[in-house]
Structures are given as structure tokens and as C-alpha cells.
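The instructor's notes for this session suggest beginning with a concrete chain rather than abstract definitions. Hand out the sequence below and ask the class to guess, before any prediction is shown, which regions might be ordered.
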Amino acid sequence: PAVLYNHGGLGAAIGGDMLGTCRTLAEAGYLARSEKRPETTQLAGHLDEVLDALNQLRSHPDADPNRIGVVGFSRGGLLTLQAAIEQPQGMHAVVLMAPAPAKDTMARTLQRVSSIAASIRVFVSENDLYQADHVQIAHDVEDALSAVGKDVVLTIYPPYGNDGHELFFVVQEPYWKDLMAFLDQTIGRLSW
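After discussion, reveal the predicted structure:
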């Protein structure tokens, strides 16, 4: 099984732990990949980068194309949702961690979720309110997906530090256990 991780951030700032996430997934038996997207504040071209990385992962000789997971944090969560709309048959498990609004881009994206085929989990900390109300965005995602009958579960974690968005800056509990359980359940990891 293979997993693509899409980082967050804006411009030169990278949100999340690309290397740590891939390393931890690999140690758990998954083929893992993450690509650093262009250092731009505009989203133009970012979805193409995600779709290209997904296609490269899917075509890797060690990847099972029938067991593909995609995990995205913040801006990467929005892009992951957009990729699930664009390539619904190419994803089997989707995790959105504190997905970003990107002005009205998320609202427009949520109008097109009916094509998604993957099971989806949405994670957010209850105090993820600093840059945007990520808690409300997570509820909006859950509501839009539920309204069209998709398999979606929202998990709201207790407050994390002064800014709940930072919960997903590194691989850590409590979210990592839930992420791994979901991936194991949907795409299964290698066992020897």
C-alpha cells in the first residue's frame, strides 16, 4: 500500500513534516511519498503538482495501485480533497488534517464532492482558530460529504498549545494513532 503526503504552508513556509511523515509511514510498512510544491502564495499549479506526485506514486513498481492513500495538512488538505474529486478511482483512503479555506476555494470545492469514492477522515484540534476557523471548515467538509452519502468521519482533538494548527506540524499523538488505524483498515499495510 502507498501513501502520498501533501504538506501545508504558504509561500516559503512549509507546514507539516514531510520527511518525518514519510519515514514513519515507511517504518509502518507503507510506500510513502511527499513532494515539495512551488513556493507561491497562489494555488495556481499546485493541484497539478499533487496529481503528478500521485501518478508517480501509483506507477512506482512497489506500489499497489488498488491501495492508495492520500494525506493532506492545511493547504495540502484542500489540495488532497481537490485531487480526490479529480481522480476519484485513484484513491482509496483520504485524510484531511485541518484543511485550509484558501479564501473561497474550499467553499467552491465542497460543491463538487459527489464524485469522491474514497473513505475520508477529517482531523482538527478544537483550538485551531488562529489563521482561520479550521474547526468550522472541518465541519463544513463533513457536512458536504455527508450530504452526498460519502464515508466521512470528523475527529476533533482537545486543544493543542496556543494554536491547534500546530498539532499537525510533526508526527505525534493523538492524531497519528487514528491516522494509522484508518489507513490500516482501508488500504492495509504489509505484514510479514
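Then share the key points. The first strand starts at residue 2 and ends at 6. The beta strands are 2-6, 8-10, 13-15, 31-34, 68-73, 93-97, 119-125, 152-157.
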